[in-house]
Design brief:
The complex is a heterotrimer of chains A (about 425), B (about 120) and C (about 475). Chain A is of the alpha/beta class and about 425 residues long. Chain A contains eight helices and 30 strands. Chain A has three domains: about 1-120 and about 255-325, FAD/NAD(P)-binding domain (3-Layer(bba) Sandwich), CATH 3.50.50; about 120-255, FAD/NAD(P)-binding domain (3-Layer(bba) Sandwich), CATH 3.50.50; about 325-420, no CATH class. Helices cover about 20% and strands about 35% of the residues of chain A. In chain A, the strands form eight sheets. In chain A, strands 1, 2, 5, 6, 7, 8 and 22 form a seven-stranded mixed β-sheet that branches. A five-stranded parallel β-sheet of chain A has the order 10-18-12-13-14. Chain A starts with a strand and ends with a strand. By secondary structure, chain B is of the alpha+beta class. Chain B folds into two domains: about 1-50, N-terminal domain of TfIIb (Single Sheet); about 55-115, CPE0013-like (CPE0013-like fold, Roll). Chain B has a five-stranded mixed β-sheet. Chain B has a three-stranded antiparallel β-sheet with strand order 1-2-3, covered by helices on one side. Chain B has a two-stranded antiparallel sheet with strand order 4-7. In chain B, strand 2 (about 15-25) and strand 3 (about 25-30) form a beta hairpin. The longest helix of chain B has 12 residues, at about 35-45. Chain C has three domains: about 1-40 and about 150-215 and about 315-360, FAD/NAD(P)-binding domain, CATH 3.50.50; about 85-145 and about 220-310, 2-Layer Sandwich (D-Amino Acid Oxidase, Chain A, domain 2); about 375-460, Orthogonal Bundle (Arc Repressor Mutant, subunit A). In chain C, about 30% of the residues lie in helices and about 25% in strands. Chain C is globular, with a radius of gyration of 22 Å. Classes of the chains: A alpha/beta (about 425), B alpha+beta (about 120), C alpha+beta (about 475). Chains A and C meet through strand 7, strand 8, helix 3 and strand 11 of A and helix 7, strand 18, helix 9 and strand 23 of C.
Chain lengths: ~425, ~120, ~475
C-alpha cells in the first residue's frame, strides 16, 4: 500500500489551496487526487469574472484564479494524480482510488483533506409535475456544456432559481445566442449577488419573477413550455396565477449539496443543516486527522473564502501529522436565533489561531439588525449590520485572547438581534 | 432636458435604490445612496456604463476544446453585441497562452479580447 | 414473409420473443418507440407479486403464480437483479382483519405458499419503521422485487442473440388478414407474417379490434411514483402493501432491486394513452398514503418521480391466447398488475402454443443464459484491480453517484440491442439513475454514445427520436 502523509481528495480551489498551504507548512508527502483530467475543479467552467477580489485584490475569471494556485502546486512539485476517482475512504484513512493508468490504488494516509466540492439538486428533488422530456438541465451541467464542450442546451430558456449560477447562466446563454425568457425565484428575494441581478438580468432585459415557481413542465419528447405560478408566503402556488411560458429548455438552479458520499463511507458525522461534516476550528471532522474544507464542508458564495478556509485545513493537516494538534477542552459554538448554521461547531482554545473565523449564514433576510456574540452569556460583540441575507455568508472573528481569558468557557453563541 | 434614471446599487448586498437626475446628459443630482461607493457607482453607471465581457472560443488541436476569453478591460455596455459578433465563427489553434490577444480592439472598443486560460497542444 | 411478428417490445413482447427464440423460426419484434422497455415496462413497481391478490381461476392468478415460482432461477439465468424480500400487507383497523384473513385464504387457493397472519407486534418487530396505526399484517414470504428494466432488456437481448430481429420507431398502422396470415403495415415498412402476437400494452385493444370481432377495451390507469435516494433504501426490508381496493393494489412502500426506496402508485384513469405526466395531486396522494404505512416519508431524499399507465382491460383479467375468431392472432392484452411477475410465464405459454400451431422445432443449441453488464462497483478490491489491468476503461468512473465505469457504459452500447440513447444507457448501466440524475455524467455519456455510435453529439437523444438534448454550437443562434 502506498504511504502518504497527506492525501487531498479533490483538485479544485479547496484542494489546491490546502495542498499549497501544507507544502508551505513544511510537509513534502502530499498527494492530490483529482477525477477530472485537469486541476481547477468547477472554476474551469466559471469563465465569468468576479473571483479573487479578496485574495488577490484583482478581479479574475475562474480559470485565471485556478491558474494562480495550479502554478503554485506545480512550482512546489506537489504530486497530483488526474483522471483519478476516489471510490472509498475508511475511518483509518485508507483511500481507495482508481484510474486507467495505475488501476486500483490503495493509499494509507496519515491525514486526509476532504475537498470534493458539491453537486446540484436535480428536478426530482423538487418533484415538478410533468413528463420527462429532454431539455431540462441543472444550471451547472448546462454551464459545462456551453463553456467546456461548446454546445448550447436550447434556444428558448426559462430558468428556475435566482442563485448566482442561474443568474450567470442567464447572461451566458443570452450572450451565446439563446433567448432567456425569464428567471423565476420562489423566495421573495433573490439568492444571488446584487451585481449579478444587474449585470446578468437587467443588462439584457431578462425579467426576474420573485415569489414565482414552475408548477408544470410541458412536452413529452422535448420541453415545449412551462407553467409558472405566483406563490404565497408559505411558498405554495396561488391558484389562478398560472401562466404558460413557451420554451424548449428549463434550467434549474435550485440548490447545491455538498458531495459527501466518501465522508459518509468513513462514518464521519454530517451536519444536517449544511449537509457537510461537523468540524472544529482546525477543520477536523469527527475523525481526528480527517479534515474538510470548501464546498464539501458548506456551500460558499466566494471562492476567496474557500481558499482561506482550505489553507487552514492544509496547515492543520501538517500539524496533525507531526503530532502538534493536541486539543484538550473545547468550546461549543451555538447557533442562536436567526443563525442557520456555523462553521466550525466547536473551538479548542489550546490550539486556536490568533483569530478564529466563524462563518455562518442567517435563516432569513434581516435589515438593520445586530450580530451578537455571547461567551457563556457575556456579550462580547454587538455589531450593526445594515443587511443580512441567507445568500451571503457572514463571519465573526474570535480573538484567542477572549478564550484564554476565560478558562472553562463552555459556549460561544452567535445570534441576530433587532437591537 | 431633464431625465430621471433609476438604478440598483451593486456595491454591497443592500442594493440601495438610487435615483439620478440628468440635464442634457449631465448629472444634476443623485439621491438614495447611503455611502460613497453608491454615489460613485451611480455616477459611472449613468454616464458611461461599462462591462467586462467573457465568452468562449473553440480551439483546434488543444488539450481542451474551448478557450475562455475576456475583454482585457471593461467596454461600453452598448458595444456588448458588437463584441460578441466579432467572436462569431472565430476559431483559434493551440497552443494558446493565458493573456494572449484573441481579437485586438474587439468591436472597435479599443479593448482587446484575451484568453484567460492556457491551452497546450494535444 | 416471417413466421411470427410480435408487436411491442415491453416486458411481455420481450418474453414472447425470448421464449420463441428457442425455436427454429423467422421472427421479428415491431416496437413503436426507439428502444425496448419504453412504456409501462419502465414505469411500474418492480414487484414480483406473491399472488394472494388475484381472483382464483383467473388468468391473472394462473400466470402470477407461474411467474412468481419461476422468477428466482429465471433471473439467475438472465442475470437480472432480483431480491426475495417478502411482502407485508398491513391492516389499519379491526374491520381489515377479516379481509386480511380472506386474502390469506384466497392466496392459498391460488397456490401461494408460506402466507402467515401476524399481530401488530410481530409486524413491527419485522419492520421497525411501520406506522403505529398498524393493527395486524399478513406476511407473504414469496414476494420479491426485480429490476423491471433488466427483466425486459435481458429477455430482448436473449431473443436477439438467438436470431430474432427488432425493429424500432415502427408504429403499427394497419393489420389485414391475408390467405397465409397477416399483412402488417408499420412506419418502417410492411411485413407479411403467419402469426401476430399482440403485446402492445395500452394500445393492445386497438390492435386487436382491427381484426377481431371480440372487442377489447383498455382503460389506461395512471400510477405515479416517487423514488428515493439509496441512503433511505433500508427504511423497510419487505414490500409494504396496504389493503387492495377495486382500483388496484394501493400505494406500496418498497426497497427496489437496486437499493432505492420507492413509493406509489396512485390510480387514476386517464383519457390520453400518451399521458405519462406526473401531477402535483398524484404525487401528494402517493406521499399521503405512504404515510399510513410508515412512520415518516423521507421527502428530503426524493431523487425523482415518474408515472406509468396500467393497461387495464374493461373485464379486469389478462386476455391471453388466440383470438377466437382470428386464427393466428394471439393476444397478450390487459397486462396490468401482476403483469411484470407474469411476463416470463406468459411468454413461455404463448410460445408453446404458437410452436404447436406452426409446427416449430426447437433449436439445437439455443442460448439460454445471458450475462448482464458487469457491475464494477460490486466487485471486491482485487477483482476491481484485475478488471482495470485487463481493460483500462474500468479505471474511468463516469457516473459518480452509482460508480459506473466507462467500460460498463461502452458495454451497454455494444451489447446486442445495445443502448443508443441516454435513457437506454441509464437502464442498462445505471449511469444517470443516481441522486444527481445525470447532472455530472450526462456530458460524458453523450460523448461516449457519440463515439460508439459514430454520430455527432448533437444527434444524441434522451429516449424518443425527437428528444434532442443539445441544439447546436455556441453562437449558432447569434
Amino acid at each position: 500500500m502506498i504511504q502518504k502523509d497527506i492525501v487531498i481528495i479533490g483538485g479544485g480551489p479547496a484542494g489546491l489551496a490546502a495542498a499549497v498551504a501544507a507544502h508551505q507548512a513544511g510537509n513534502r508527502s502530499i498527494l492530490i487526487l483529482e477525477r477530472d483530467s485537469v486541476l481547477g475543479g468547477i472554476l474551469n467552467q466559471c469563465i465569468h469574472n468576479g473571483f479573487g477580489l479578496h485574495v488577490f485584490k484583482e478581479e479574475l475569471t475562474g480559470p485565471e484564479y485556478a491558474a494562480r494556485y495550479i502554478r503554485q502546486v506545480e512550482a512546489c512539485g506537489i504530486e497530483v494524480k488526474l483522471d483519478t476517482m476516489v471510490i472509498d475512504l475508511t475511518a483509518d484513512k485508507i483511500v481507495t482510488a482508481i484510474n486507467e493508468k495505475d488501476g486500483l490504488l490503495q493509499i494509507q494516509a496519515q491525514a486526509v483533506i476532504l475537498a470534493m466540492g458539491c453537486r446540484e439538486r436535480p428536478r426530482g428533488a423538487l418533484n415538478i409535475p410533468g413528463s420527462r422530456p429532454s431539455g431540462i438541465f441543472s444550471a451547472g451541467t448546462a454551464q459545462r456544456f456551453v463553456n467546456i464542450e461548446g454546445y448550447m442546451p436550447g434556444h428558448q430558456i426559462v430558468i428556475l432559481g435566482s442563485g448566482d449560477i442561474g443568474l450567470i447562466m442567464a447572461r451566458r446563454l443570452t450572450l451565446e445566442g439563446a433567448a432567456v425568457k425569464m428567471v423565476c425565484e420562489i423566495m421573495p428575494y433573490s439568492g444571488g449577488l446584487k451585481r449579478n441581478i444587474v449585470q446578468c438580468l437587467d443588462d439584457y432585459g431578462i425579467p426576474l419573477r420573485l415569489s414565482h415557481t414552475v408548477t408544470q413542465i410541458h412536452g413529452k419528447d422535448r420541453v415545449t413550455g412551462v407553467t409558472v405560478a405566483k406563490v404565497d408566503s408559505d411558498r405554495n402556488p396561488i391558484p389562478g396565477s398560472e401562466e404558460f411560458v413557451a420554451c424548449d429548455t428549463l434550467l434549474l438552479s435550485v440548490g447545491l449539496i455538498p458531495e459527501n458520499e466518501l465522508t459518509r463511507k468513513a462514518g464521519i458525522v454530517i451536519n444536517p443543516k449544511t449537509l457537510g461534516a461537523i468540524v472544529d476550528e482546525s477543520l477536523t471532522t469527527s475523525i481526528e486527522g480527517i479534515f474538510a474544507a470548501g464546498n464539501v464542508l458548506h456551500v460558499h458564495d466566494l471562492v476567496d473564502y474557500v481558499s482561506t478556509e482550505a489553507e487552514l485545513a492544509g496547515k492543520n493537516a501538517v500539524k496533525y501529522v507531526s503530532g502538534r494538534l493536541v486539543k484538550n477542552e473545547s468550546v461549543a459554538v451555538v447557533t442562536g436565533s436567526g443563525v442557520r448554521y456555523t462553521v466550525p461547531s466547536a473551538i479548542h482554545p489550546a490550539i486556536a489561531e490568533t483569530i478564529t473565523t466563524i462563518r455562518f449564514r442567517t435563516d432569513n433576510v434581516y435589515k438593520d439588525s445586530y450580530v451578537s456574540v455571547d461567551l457563556d452569556g457575556e456579550r462580547l460583540q454587538h455589531i450593526k449590520k445594515r443587511i443580512l441575507t441567507p445568500g451571503e455568508m457572514e463571519q465573526v472573528l474570535i480573538p484567542r485572547k477572549w478564550l484564554s481569558e476565560r478558562p472553562g468557557l463552555a459556549t460561544i453563541t452567535i445570534k441576530i438581534e433587532e437591537e | 432636458m431633464g431625465e430621471r434614471k433609476e438604478l440598483t446599487c451593486i456595491g454591497c448586498p443592500m442594493g440601495c435604490p438610487i435615483e439620478v437626475e440628468l440635464d442634457h446628459g449631465k448629472i444634476v443630482q443623485i439621491t438614495g445612496f447611503v455611502c460613497k461607493k453608491g454615489e460613485l457607482y451611480a455616477m459611472k453607471e449613468v454616464v458611461d456604463p461599462r462591462r467586462v465581457i467573457t465568452s468562449i472560443v473553440p480551439v483546434d488541436g488543444g488539450t481542451v476544446g474551448m478557450v475562455p476569453v475576456k475583454t482585457a478591460g471593461d467596454i461600453p455596455k452598448h458595444r456588448i453585441k458588437t463584441c460578441m459578433e466579432a467572436l462569431k465563427g472565430l476559431r483559434v489553434t493551440a497552443p494558446v497562452t493565458s493573456g494572449q490577444v484573441i481579437v485586438a480592439n474587439v468591436g472597435d472598443t479599443g479593448i482587446d479580447m484575451i484568453a484567460t486560460r492556457t491551452v497546450a497542444r494535444r | 414473409m416471417v413466421d411470427v411478428l410480435i408487436i411491442g417490445a415491453g416486458v411481455v413482447g420481450a418474453s414472447v420473443a425470448r421464449a420463441l427464440s428457442q425455436y427454429e423460426l423467422n421472427a421479428v419484434v415491431i416496437e413503436k418507440n426507439h428502444d425496448v422497455c419504453e412504456e409501462t415496462s419502465k414505469a411500474n413497481s418492480g414487484i414480483v407479486h406473491a399472488g394472494y391478490d388475484a381472483l382464483p381461476g383467473t388468468m391473472k392468478a394462473k400466470f402470477n403464480l407461474l411467474g412468481s415460482r419461476m422468477m428466482a432461477s429465471f433471473c439467475r439465468d438472465l442475470d437480472v437483479p432480483y431480491r426475495n424480500n417478502g411482502s407485508l400487507i398491513l391492516a389499519f383497523c379491526d374491520n381489515d382483519l377479516p379481509r386480511l384473513a380472506a386474502l390469506k385464504e384466497q392466496g392459498e387457493l391460488n397456490g401461494v405458499e408460506g402466507l402467515r397472519l401476524l399481530t401488530a407486534a410481530e409486524a413491527k418487530r419485522l419492520e421497525p419503521n411501520l406506522n403505529a396505526g398498524v393493527v395486524g399484517a399478513m406476511l407473504a414470504p414469496s414476494g420479491a422485487v426485480v429490476d423491471p428494466f433488466e427483466l425486459t432488456i435481458a429477455q430482448a437481448e436473449l431473443a436477439a442473440v438467438n436470431g430474432i430481429d427488432f425493429v424500432f420507431d415502427a408504429e403499427v398502422r394497419a393489420i389485414r388478414k391475408t390467405t397465409s396470415g397477416f399483412l402488417v403495415t408499420t412506419d418502417r415498412g410492411d411485413y407479411e407474417t403467419k402469426v401476430v402476437v399482440n403485446c402492445a400494452g395500452v394500445r393492445a385493444d386497438e390492435l386487436n379490434n382491427l381484426v377481431s370481432t371480440r372487442k377489447l377495451s383498455i382503460i389506461p390507469r395512471k400510477g405515479e411514483y416517487c423514488l428515493f435516494d439509496k441512503q433511505v433504501g433500508t427504511l423497510v426490508e419487505h414490500t409494504i402493501f396496504q389493503m387492495p381496493t377495486e382500483l388496484g393494489k394501493g400505494v406500496l412502500v418498497t426497497p427496489t432491486a437496486e437499493g432505492n426506496l420507492l413509493i406509489g402508485p396512485s390510480a387514476v384513469d386517464v383519457a390520453d394513452k400518451d399521458d405519462v405526466s406526473t401531477t402535483a395531486e398524484g404525487l401528494a396522494e402517493v406521499v399521503r398514503k405512504a404515510r399510513q404505512s410508515i412512520v415518516s416519508v423521507p421527502t428530503g431524499f426524493v431523487i425523482t418521480a415518474f408515472a406509468g399507465l396500467r393497461a387495464t382491460e374493461r373485464d379486469g383479467d389478462f386476455v391471453i391466447g388466440e383470438a377466437p375468431d382470428v386464427p393466428g392472432f394471439y393476444n397478450a392484452a390487459g397486462i396490468e398488475s401482476p403483469g411484470l411477475t407474469s411476463a416470463p410465464a406468459i411468454g413461455d405459454h404463448l410460445a408453446a402454443s404458437i410452436a404447436i400451431a406452426l409446427g416449430l422445432e426447437l433449436k439445437k443449441n439455443p442460448i439460454r443464459k445471458r450475462p448482464g453488464t458487469i457491475r464494477f462497483e460490486t466487485l471486491d478490491t482485487d477483482r476491481k484491480a484485475a478488471m482495470i489491468r485487463d481493460n483500462p476503461d474500468y479505471g474511468k468512473i463516469v457516473c459518480r453517484c452509482e460508480l459506473v465505469t466507462a467500460a460498463e457504459i461502452r458495454d451497454a452500447i455494444r451489447r446486442p440491442l445495445g443502448a443508443t440513447t441516454i435513457d437506454g444507457v441509464k437502464r442498462r448501466a445505471r449511469a444517470g439513475s443516481g441522486r444527481c440524475q445525470g447532472g455530472f455524467c450526462s456530458p460524458k455519456v453523450i460523448r461516449i454514445l457519440a463515439e460508439e455510435l459514430g454520430i455527432d453529439p448533437l444527434e444524441i437523444v434522451k429516449s424518443d427520436q425527437h428528444s434532442i438534448i443539445l441544439v447546436g454550437f455556441d453562437k449558432d443562434d447569434m
